[in-house]
């Protein structure tokens, strides 16, 4: 097998060509990837598009050597190679940046970079390493302070570090899995713009998984579209419209229409939060003296860069974290988010990272869908016996209604693609017709555009039925299109509030950035 000598960032030699030929990957009877071919041409940014569960992650995991493909070939510069591990992918100059951060929070940027190398020795000469790191940073498209512990970096800086790590490892082919999902719109444009510059300078090729058409049209040259594990189309981005790409993804034209908001004359306060304080896991303050009211039939949006207290706020309201001070009430009664109180007041929550926070990963899709109702009729008899037939038929209905792509209701929920785990939780939490208060944190994270339209519609429908909605989102566009009122959270405090009609985008951006 060829072991590539790795080019340095300053070399002018083009990155290698990467070809995937007739690749198939089966998981048991499920064909996740079916005879797919694509070429990543040197010096291009190539978008990989597809609905949730279309096979994008499976394809890149086969390239990276996480999965052994059932059939098919990988060619690097026209030579066939079997890539058995990410370490081997690295030897061919292929590196991947994941949706979630992989750096160690307690260690500094410099320590994380040095330890990410596959050839780190037991004895590290820090003086020499620092000289090299400083030289590397000086020639990098973006900078991150070497001495800051990663845990103290803002989300945007962390994401930049993940990309820098790959440049530091001298990756020439970068696979980016939804790299902008944790960034503000401004940061996303900055990061993708800088990466594109590196590509234009001939330092890199990039394979970009994204659900955002805007990113495809603004930053990529070519596109490959997958649908149900198969190649649905490909081409030069300049020659394709968004409608063309959407049609390739869906296999048909699907019209989406925005749902009109109605007005509520008799709205009542549902959620009231007074002087609420809570700490982070490390004991430092996360939210400070927050005051908030959400009325029935209203969507209040909380905007902010991740890590500014939103997660802790949602955790307090969902009963996963104890406040250190303050009061929460729902429908005028004190509320501490116990299961009994959530049931009595019909409070539903869609937390972030649903696989970790809202599912039992090894339990089946049907069991996860029944987590809120398994002890009630008709799924339970006398709250003692589970009626499995009912649980299964309820799940089948929800799978259909929420278009969850799963081979059956009986597979472990952890086998589903990220977007379909999200749909499973949404199906469970949104299907009740007795919702009073809905708390949603980044409900569309990682979802494809048709799922986003669907979820947005469901949230507005709930609001129109009189549900009070607290929508915490890092996606400003989402907040601006759904919320009635927007509040900006920065360093655990509310620093801006406005009715959506009067909201000023520039001010919101500045407040989010802490100015
Ligand atoms: N380890 C696994 N075991 C069983 N099935 C799997 C496994 N990984 C993925 N799948 C299935 O393969 C199919 C493709 O999933 P994949 O994660 O590649 O989709 P995706 O296009 O990346 O979706 P998303 O946009 O939601 O991340 C899905 O039906 C998924 O349930």
UniProtKB/TrEMBL annotation:
<dbReference type="InterPro" id="IPR027417">
    <property type="entry name" value="P-loop_NTPase"/>
</dbReference>
<keyword id="KW-0547">Nucleotide-binding</keyword>
<dbReference type="InterPro" id="IPR050107">
    <property type="entry name" value="ABC_carbohydrate_import_ATPase"/>
</dbReference>
<dbReference type="Pfam" id="PF00005">
    <property type="entry name" value="ABC_tran"/>
</dbReference>
<feature type="domain" description="ABC transporter">
    <location>
        <begin position="18"/>
        <end position="253"/>
    </location>
</feature>
<keyword id="KW-0067">ATP-binding</keyword>
<feature type="domain" description="ABC transporter">
    <location>
        <begin position="271"/>
        <end position="513"/>
    </location>
</feature>
<protein>
    <submittedName>
        <fullName>ABC transporter ATP-binding protein</fullName>
    </submittedName>
</protein>
<dbReference type="InterPro" id="IPR003593">
    <property type="entry name" value="AAA+_ATPase"/>
</dbReference>
<dbReference type="InterPro" id="IPR017871">
    <property type="entry name" value="ABC_transporter-like_CS"/>
</dbReference>
<dbReference type="GO" id="GO:0005524">
    <property type="term" value="F:ATP binding"/>
</dbReference>
<dbReference type="InterPro" id="IPR003439">
    <property type="entry name" value="ABC_transporter-like_ATP-bd"/>
</dbReference>
């Amino acid at each position: 097998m060829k072991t590539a000598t790795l080019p340095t960032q300053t070399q002018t030699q083009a990155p290698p060509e990467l070809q995937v030929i007739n690749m198939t990957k089966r998981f048991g009877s499920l064909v996740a990837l079916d005879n797919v071919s694509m070429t990543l041409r040197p010096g291009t940014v190539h978008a990989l598009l597809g609905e949730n569960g279309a096979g994008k992650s499976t394809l890149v995991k086969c390239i990276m050597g996480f999965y052994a493909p059932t059939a098919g070939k990988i060619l690097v510069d026209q030579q066939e190679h079997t890539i058995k591990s990410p370490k081997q992918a690295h030897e061919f100059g292929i590196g991947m940046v994941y949706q979630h951060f992989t750096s160690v929070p307690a260690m500094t940027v410099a320590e994380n970079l040095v330890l990410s190398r596959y050839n780190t020795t037991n004895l590290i000469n820090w003086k020499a390493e620092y000289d090299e790191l400083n030289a590397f940073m000086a020639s990098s498209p973006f900078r991150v302070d070497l001495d800051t512990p990663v845990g103290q970096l803002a989300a945007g800086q962390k994401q930049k570090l993940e990309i820098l790590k790959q440049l530091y490892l001298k990756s020439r082919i970068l696979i980016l899995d939804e790299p902008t999902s944790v960034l503000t719109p401004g940061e996303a444009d900055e990061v993708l713009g800088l990466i594109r510059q590196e590509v234009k300078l001939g330092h890199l090729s990039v394979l970009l998984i994204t659900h955002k058409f805007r990113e495809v049209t603004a930053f990529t040259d070519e596109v490959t579209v997958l649908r149900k594990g198969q190649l649905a189309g490909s081409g030069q981005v300049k020659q394709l419209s968004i409608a063309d790409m959407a049609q390739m993804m869906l296999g048909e034209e699907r019209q989406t229409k925005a749902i009109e908001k109605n007005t509520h004359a008799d709205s009542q306060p549902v959620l009231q939060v007074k002087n609420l304080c809570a700490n982070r896991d490390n004991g430092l303050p996360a939210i400070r003296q927050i005051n908030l009211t959400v009325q029935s039939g209203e969507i209040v949006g909380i905007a902010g860069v991740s890590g500014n207290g939103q997660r802790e706020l949602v955790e307090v309201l969902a009963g996963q974290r104890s406040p250190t001070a303050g009061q929460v009430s729902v429908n005028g009664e004190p509320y501490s988010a116990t299961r009994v109180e959530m049931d009595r007041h019909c409070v539903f929550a869609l937390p972030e990272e649903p696989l970790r926070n809202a599912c039992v990963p090894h339990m089946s899709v049907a069991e996860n869908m029944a987590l809120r109702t398994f002890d009630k009729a008709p799924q339970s008899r006398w709250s003692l016996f589970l009626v499995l037939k009912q649980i299964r038929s309820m799940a089948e209905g929800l799978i259909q209604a929420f278009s969850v792509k799963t081979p059956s209701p009986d597979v472990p929920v952890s086998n589903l693609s990220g977007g379909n785990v999200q749909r499973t939780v949404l199906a469970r939490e949104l299907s009740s017709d007795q919702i009073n208060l809905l708390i949603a944190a980044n409900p569309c994270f990682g979802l494809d555009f048709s799922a986003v339209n669907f979820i947005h519609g469901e949230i507005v429908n709930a609001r129109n039925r009189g549900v009070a909605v607290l929508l915490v989102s890092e996606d400003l566009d989402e907040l601006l299109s759904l919320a009635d009122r927007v509040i900006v959270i920065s360093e655990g405090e509310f620093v801006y509030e406005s009715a959506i009609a009067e909201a000023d985008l520039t001010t919101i951006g500045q407040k989010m950035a802490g100015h």
